[in-house]
Design brief:
Elements lengths: L4 H16 E2 L8 E2 L9 H17 L13 H6 L8 H16 L16 E2 L7 H4 L4 H21 L6 H28 E7 L3 H10 L6 H11 L1 H7 L18 E7 L30 H14 L2 H5 L5 H25 L14 E2 L5 E2 H18 L3 H17 L11 H7 L3 E5 L10 E5 L2 H15 L3 H20 L30 H19 L6 H24 L6 H20 L4 H28 L1
Antiparallel strand pairs: 1-2, 3-9, 4-5, 6-7, 8-9
Helix pairs in contact: 1-2, 1-19, 2-6, 2-19, 4-7, 6-7, 6-11, 7-13, 10-13, 11-13, 11-14, 13-14, 14-15, 14-17, 15-17, 15-18, 17-18, 17-19, 20-21, 20-22, 21-22
Length: 620
């Protein structure tokens, strides 16, 4: 890989620290600068913090919770935050400021979209509309709260001061409360939307699934049969929205499941012992949006990650809420993977780019979102190389169509608009609060492509196919690197799309935390590929074993035929050869190429010994 995750993360941290720690008032008092391109809101501020907290809690060499072990290069780039001891204290103060700001006077956590909301027409959103909760905020709050709680859990044993321990206790309570409230919000934003097979939505779904042009009635029957386990799982849901209805049993109806943009209209309140505060009334259309479904799925996955389990972050009630979310995660994963790969060996609906939704909207970005859901499924059930490769081909095609791995064309307006101003989603139901229909714009095509490509590359076992995917990841990174700010206070942060696409005239001075944190997620994903074991080639392993067998046999001959006596130099040589052979045997299954290198050196050393012995015997 041309991506150098450590160097890139260090550069991002350096840029983040220099941008965020400033003397805003000119009085010598430096504080955290929350300014971003779209202004402050509960999502943007969380994204800014996650640019620091995600690597610190998900990439082991970047941990900041053990001050005595913090590497010198990390201390260098984070110097504006203080020294090794001061950095954790600074983080505690900054994150506490975030949680306090986005908590209402009655201690109800605030999840509003704020300045991220635009409108579908010229009328600006009302103040009440800007205060509406949105799934993006729930998702970012889950990720931030888990990162903070894990950070505090590891840091606590090394902290001695009474004051800092009280600050940690207060922060832990706030983070836990916000986590619980975000989980409740996600439970109330989940939905199952049903529709008749002969409706506009039904015909659109059938058209997507019917890649073999078979009779529609047969498609419906086969699709319902393929989804029978998902349908049964919906019946097990007992809390939150999206609970099963009799319509699911009707053979003339189909359905979709996933997350709406906010709490769905008519969503019941969640009974919980956690202090989540008030639960607002839902107004979002009870239908899934692919964008918000992917955002929710990515966040929920962190709830049952290995780190969350090992650190025992969730209390008993949070574990109950987590199990309810995991059930929804599982059935959503299963539903979309079944639909996207429907038809067995024929062309998958996913491969029929661009993806078309049931309301007849189509976009390459939607294909990337569906690919994300399929990736979740392949990770969960350990998909075969053939399946992974087919998804890899889709990602490659999307990279080409999105002008990531090919040069941009001046007249390719759809591809340009996908990057800036982004793919718009009208938040149906938001007009019920007075004002226009709110709009949400997604601009993360390139970083999302990087995230999914590196994840598939880390799963695939075929060396050639993996190399192709890593090449796509490198090309995507090259594209992203060109979109970094190269001057000004935002230098080395994102995003300046006009540097890549000449037809995009908009120029920016402030960083987009929405975009930057998604690039960070892509780089963090690349670290997982590098930390995994190299792929094992059966042919290479067989060759290594044969080489090792010959080397061990020749070494045994040398030991048998050469008296060592008191020759310390010779004894040291033989000890080194024996150690190399032992190491080669130890790693031959996991790292056959390295074992070949060790065995080859041993063979050269043994041959040199044999030649020297022959010369001595000839002289005698």
């Amino acid at each position: 890989m041309r991506i150098r995750p450590r160097q890139e993360l260090l550069e991002i941290w350096r840029a983040l620290a220099e941008y965020s720690i400033r003397d805003a008032d000119g009085n010598g008092d430096k504080g955290w600068n929350w300014e971003g391109r779209e202004g402050r809101n509960s999502i943007s501020d969380a994204e800014q913090l996650l640019c620091l907290m995600l690597p610190a809690t998900q990439v082991e060499p970047f941990g900041l919770d053990q001050p005595d072990d913090t590497p010198s290069d990390i201390l260098q780039v984070l110097r504006p935050l203080g020294d090794a001891v001061a950095i954790p204290r600074t983080l505690i103060r900054i994150v506490t400021e975030y949680f306090e700001r986005y908590t209402a006077p009655d201690e109800t956590p605030v999840f509003s979209g704020g300045s991220y909301f635009t409108s579908a027409d010229d009328e600006p959103p009302t103040a009440e509309q800007r205060g509406l909760d949105i799934v993006d905020s729930y998702a970012m709050s889950v990720r931030l709260s888990l990162a903070v709680l894990g950070f505090l859990r590891v840091l606590r044993p090394v902290v001695r001061g009474a004051t800092i321990r009280r600050e940690m206790d207060d922060l832990e309570r706030m983070a836990s409360r916000r986590l619980s409230a975000a989980m409740v919000g996600l439970l109330r934003s989940f939905t199952v939307s049903t529709f008749a097979t002969d409706s506009g939505e039904g015909r659109a779904l059938i058209r997507t699934a019917n890649q073999a042009n078979v009779p529609e009635r047969k498609v419906v029957a086969e699709l319902r049969r393929a989804l029978r386990e998902t349908t049964a799982a919906i019946a097990e849901m007992t809390i939150g929205s999206g609970q099963a209805t009799d319509e699911l049993e009707n053979p003339n109806r189909l359905f979709e499941c996933g997350w709406s943009w906010g709490i769905v209209n008519g969503a019941p309140t969640i009974e919980t012992t956690e202090p989540v505060g008030g639960q607002s009334e839902g107004i979002a259309l009870s239908a899934p949006w692919l964008y918000f479904t992917v955002v929710a799925m990515d966040a929920i996955e962190d709830l049952f990650s290995e780190r969350t389990r090992i650190l025992n972050i969730l209390n008993e009630e949070q574990q109950r809420l987590s199990r309810a979310l995991q059930l929804r995660w599982d059935l959503t994963r299963s539903y979309w993977a079944t639909l996207a790969t429907f038809g067995g060996g024929r062309r998958w609906p996913l491969e029929d780019i661009p993806w078309r939704t049931v309301d007849n909207v189509e976009s390459d970005y939607l294909s990337l979102l569906v690919t994300s859901l399929v990736v979740h499924d392949l990770v969960q059930r350990r998909g075969s190389d053939a399946e992974l490769s087919r998804v890899g081909f889709v990602l490659t095609e999307l990279g080409n169509r999105g002008r990531i791995s090919r040069r941009p064309l001046e007249d390719d307006e759809p591809a340009m608009r996908m990057h800036a101003p982004g793919v718009p989603f009208d938040l149906v139901g938001s007009e019920d609060r007075g004002g226009p229909v709110l709009r949400w714009s997604a601009t993360d095509f390139a970083p999302l492509l990087l995230q999914r490509t590196t994840r598939i590359a880390g799963l695939i076992n075929d060396t050639d196919r993996r190399a192709n995917l890593l090449d796509l990841a490198d090309r995507t990174w090259d594209h992203l690197a060109e979109r970094r700010f190269d001057t000004g206070p935002s230098r080395s942060l994102w995003d300046q799309p006009g540097d890549v696409f000449p037809t995009i005239s908009a120029r920016y001075d402030l960083p987009s935390w929405y975009y930057t944190v998604r690039v960070v997620l892509g780089v963090v994903g690349a670290t997982r590929v590098l930390f995994s074991n190299p792929l094992r080639s059966p042919t290479l392993t067989e060759f290594a074993l044969e080489l090792l067998t010959e080397a061990e046999h020749l070494f045994d001959q040398e030991l048998l035929s050469r008296p060592l006596g008191d020759n310390e130099k010779m004894r040291g040589t033989f000890t080194a050869i024996g150690a190399s052979l032992a190491r080669s045997r130890e790693i031959v299954q996991d790292r056959p190429a390295t074992a070949i290198a060790l065995a080859s050196k041993v063979l050269r050393d043994i041959d040199a010994l044999a030649v020297a012995r022959a010369d001595v015997e000839g002289t005698d």
